[in-house]
Amino acid sequence: MSDPSGEPSFCTDDAPLSAPLAHGADVAAHFHDYGQLRYAARGALVTATQVGTWVAPASRIMWVPPFAVHSSKAYGETDIRVLSLPVTLTGQLPAEPSVFVASALLREAYLALMSEGEPLESPRARLLIDVVLAELARAAQEPLRLPEPIDRRLKAVTDLLHMDPASPATLAELGHRTGAGERTLSRLFGSELSMSFRQWRTLLRIQRALIELSDGASVTDTAIRLGWSNPSSFIDAFTELVGQTPGGYRSSARSSRSSHG
């Protein structure tokens, strides 16, 4: 969906979309003049913008506001349901991309809206849209936005970590691989991303843990695969950032998947 120059393209197709995405499937950077809600009934969708990366597994719903440039990647066999909202209906939604915790009512209303094939202008569809918007207005927002850098030296380091979140490499070692000094990189993490290297890598690992746990992986396997030295340290970090234990999150995510599998 990008033009040959690599610039993000303007997308004009605002029709509702229900489609399977294979594991690893990419949607190139693009934007549109309407808002977009994105729900993965199965699998998980990672949405990246210039300012951050968000993860939306089956227990979450993603909001992309009008004109926000974004790209996507599917993790696992992903069943994505995309609903476009005109600007006139987006006034109560955030001005930046966000992820919301999806209540049972929100999921059911959203899936009914997407699966019935009913014109969005119909009275029933408008009622369902009203329910979706009302539930979003009271839903908790997922706080796990991973900030992304603009500085090319810092981006070279974060790109390596995106490819291998479990990497035990120190900032000095990553700097040696990318041609930047440790002190410079440490300063850039603080000034550009408002967090330390360690905090950023932990947040990246927690985002990937959301995907692993939603796909049914055990807490212990997830901890080891993503670079924690033991499950206890993973549980502590996850609980502090997400607000619930990895086991609790895994159970709620699997419940969401089984309800709509």
Automatic annotation (TrEMBL):
Keywords: DNA-binding, Transcription, Transcription regulation. The keyword DNA-binding applies. InterPro entries: AraC-bd, Homeodomain-like_sf, HTH_AraC, RmlC_Cupin_sf. Signal peptide: none annotated. The keyword Transcription applies. Residues 155-252 form the HTH araC/xylS-type domain. Coiled coil: none annotated. SMART domains: HTH_ARAC. Gene3D superfamilies: Homeodomain-like (1.10.10.60). It holds the Pfam family AraC_binding. This is AraC family transcriptional regulator. It comes from Streptomyces cellulosae.
